[in-house]
Amino acid sequence: MAQQVANVWWGMFAFATLVLVAVSAIWIYALARKPRKTSDEDAIRINRRWVIGGGIVLPSLSIIVLLIFGIPTGRSMMPLPVEGEQPLKVEVTGHQWWWEVHYPDSGVTTANQLIIPAGRLVDVQVSSADVIHSFWIPRLGGKMDMLPGRTNVIRIQAGHTGVFHGQCSEFCGLQHTHMKLHVEAMEQADFDGWIAARENLRFTAGAPGEAGQVFDDRCGQCHRVAGLSEGGRAPDLTDLATRPSLGAGVIDNDSEGLRRWLREHKDLKFGNAMPSHDDIPPQTLDQMADWLETLAP
Ligand code: HEC
Ligand SMILES: [Cu+2]
Q1: Which of 128, 135, 95 is nearest to 114 (CA)?
Q2: Dist. CA 106–CA 191, nearest whole Å
Q3: Strands 229-230, 88-95: parallel, antiparallel or unpaired by DSSP?
Q4: Position 3 pLDDT exceeds 90
Q5: pLDDT above 70 coverage of the chain, percent
Q6: Which parts of the chain span the membrane according to its record (predicted)?
Q7: Residue 142 has pLDDT above 80, yes or no
Q8: pLDDT given at position 5
Q9: Computed from CA positions of residues 225, 226, 230, 235, in that sequence, does the dihedral angle turn out positive or negative?
């Protein structure tokens, strides 16, 4: 779809360049030529010719040509019925300031990463839990507003495997910039494996010692870890260790990053909705970080 959008853009660019060159040439010619005597009637006639030709016929033709190419491109991004293999459904919900990603067919939930099979159509059902956000993966095509209380659908298709970058593109508050989405297209078989690994993933052992208590009392109220807590107000942490970044792109997700996030998340991402952990002893936070690093299939 992005390829088609790009083609339409280049076509418009070429045509606009032609018009610019033509108008400039006529303008230079008009400046350079000697004035001729024209009768009033002739002047009106010439005038009218330019208004009708240049002002009505040319723009109408250009718009018709543009629509001939533009409408099919727009339609290819709409979730119209297709024959054969059905598009994969994914629900993406915008939150201030992170992305909830849910695969309704398998019940898998993750956050701040959208994994899709390359080559297959994907219908992304976008919505919002709070304010208006906008779903945009520039290299995969158009954008779609994410509105609270309404579900919009945008169809995407990655032509090849690889990593693409998504970004919220509707100003949604302080940390709008720090609302990045990691998008990865995999071979269908790898994608199936990715889903299968998460489908029945349940943890039985919580964090050890103090950290376990803190998790049950606090973290688990907002965060879900399959098998341990059902919090739904914050990123699902079940596959946390497999994600490339924390805080929707604020910091790399490694041992160091995780420790920093738990201690300094208020500085790293000012205003984010997670309460400060200043009252939790550093060693408990480190214990927590060690355990969070094990949350993976
Ligand atoms: C009031 C709800 C709330 C509580 C309680 C809470 N968090 Fe969070 N947490 C959030 C929100 C919201 C985010 C996402 C912030 C953002 O990126 O804007 C978050 C983000 C995170 C992340 C990064 C996740 C990611 O994928 O980027 C980790 C890790 C995390 N919290 C761990 C914890 C731990 C450990 C505790 C308990 C000590 C805790 N949280 C308590 C709401 C909460
Ligand atoms: Cu935003």
Answers
A1: 135
A2: 12
A3: unpaired
A4: no
A5: 100
A6: 6-29, 50-71
A7: no
A8: 84
A9: positive
Amino acid sitting at position 38: T
Residue 187 tokens read as 């071979």
To test the pocket of ligand 1, the residue of 179, 216, 223, 293 to mutate (highest count of ligand atoms within 8 Å of its CB) is 223
Going by alpha carbons, the residue nearest to atom 41 of ligand 1 is: 219
Strand-strand pairing, 113-117 and 180-186: parallel
pTM: 0.86
Q: Considering all CA atoms of the chain, what is the largest pairwise distance in Å, rounded to the nearest integer?
A: 99
Confidence of residue 13 (pLDDT cuts 50, 70, 90): very high
* Ligand 1, CB within 6 Å, residue ranges: 97-98, 111-112, 175, 214, 218-219, 221-223, 233-235, 240, 243, 246-248, 261-262, 269, 272-275, 277, 288, 292
In degrees, to the nearest 5, what angle opens at C-alpha 152 toward C-alphas 198 and 181? 50
Cα 50 from Cα 52, distance rounded (Å) = 6
Q: Give the start-end residues of each E strand in the chain.
A: 88-95, 98-103, 108-111, 113-117, 122-128, 133-136, 143-146, 152-156, 162-167, 180-186, 224-225, 229-230, 245-246, 251-252
Buried b / exposed e across 160-181, counting CB within 10 Å, b at 16+? eeeebebbbbbebeebbebbbb
Q: Which of 52, 77, 226, 83 is nearest to 140 (CA)?
A: 77
Ligand nearest to the backbone CA of 265: 1
Q: How far out from the chain centre does Cα 257 lie?
A: 24
